[in-house]
Amino acid sequence: MNLSQLRYVVAVVDEGTMTAAAGRLHVAQPAVSQAVRALEAELGVELFRRTGRRLELTEPGGQVVGAARRALAEVDAIPGLAAAASEREQARVAVVSTDKLSAYCTAAAREVGRGRPEARVSLSLVGRADAVPLALRDGTADVGLTHLPIPVDADLEVEVVGEQGFVVVLPPGLTHDRASITRAELAAFPLIAPLRGSRHRAVFDRRFAEVGVEPKIALELDTESRDLSPAVIVATGASFAYRTDAQEFTRLGATVLEFEPPMGRPIAIVRPRNRRSDHATALVDALRAVVAADPAAAPRSGALLEPAAD
């Protein structure tokens, strides 16, 4: 039994004769006759009886044709189901972001939803900026929002859209006579530094080398870790922190100072060059607008505007 046999039998019922059925199906009349006889032989029942020039269904034939119509309807619906599934898949946009930038992503997703109600934006958060390009390369994300520097290559497009400024956090017991501090002045304090050998440690060391001083390293920590809470930092030593966390450090009794001149990490949108969709482009546009609308993300330092290339 095959689908062609079922289509031929249904056409014979609809048209009343095998000749008319053959014309509808654009095949020779003997092909229809042979298909009907083959199906009757396989099922062991007579499907039609001849009445004058027309064919009438037998009782078993009626049951077979009813089942054939249902089967053909299900088969004919498959392309539409596949197309609908493809449309749903194209409407999905996965964005990956570092924890500190998640608020921008949720705001951008709301904007996309207003203009494109069919779009489905999913957000995954990572603790380390280096994890963002990995998610983009393995296909689990379509768009990324992250701090720089990150490892990038020719497959990824990086667009700097803002900056998350740094402040200096002095734990209780350490004081400074002004509301701002230079890198040279900060080098006199015992400092928390990123782990030696990491990209962020290279940037850390370079920024002090630029002003001709060597910092006093009290402790090395994984400064990208989700487990590194403000309370741990405050209890350990002087450190850099994002301006967005300043209120929490102040609550813990730390002194928060502005950098002089300002310093910060760029905020960048990252996306694959060879994988684009209209919805992903809409999300990128929304992210760009949301970050630009935040005064706290306005670039002020220009200190770290280079992504790290592999």
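Second entry:
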Amino acid sequence: MGLPQYPGHSDTIMLPFQYHYATLLPVRNCPEYATFKANNSLIGYQPFITFPMADLNQYFMEFSPLEEEVLAILLQSTITRTFDKVDYLLQAGNTCKYLYFINEGLAKSFFSREDKEFIMRFFSEGRVFSIFDSFLNRQPSRYALVALEQTTVTLIHVDTMEDLCKRYHSMETFFRKLVSVATTRMMRRISEMLEDNATERYNQFIADNNQILQRISLGDLAKYLGITQQSLSRIRTTR
């Protein structure tokens, strides 16, 4: 069947636990994905460092179990990169070709209009995310992804997902579940922006993201909430 088509959105799936991945070695300026063929061979660049993959392995097994064969093929095809603070994982106007899994660090998705930045999501350790409309439809993204601190990510190429979804029912089930949950989370995000006031949005953010609050600047938090920094200061003072 291949990858299903879904309306435009970007979102994240979060593990029910958090990890600190201090043992992963960074790869910088790694070339893009090596071509993934049906016989499971990788043609072209292959990373010269073998990375411990227990983190991503456990993510898949917790979220939607895969057979050992398909999991092994998947992990073989991933690449790992480290981005410095303010580096772009994806620039607006480019096509999103990856699912991202954060091993360590923090990133945000956002778009800009009339010199104003609108932040949609923050992504921390143990999260899988993408710009799904661009990823699925292979079209340029309106959103950008940028690292807010030094961030190590494991990348899964769209061709890998396409191939494995065609060949393995368990992978298709995983991906459909991934996109379904991401869609639900995005609908919640849209609803809170339309229906909740700024104080309610702030309180909900604290409840959902208290573990990363100290890692996010007040300016970025205000952009996420859709308010000015002055309004955010007043909310924090009266809370």
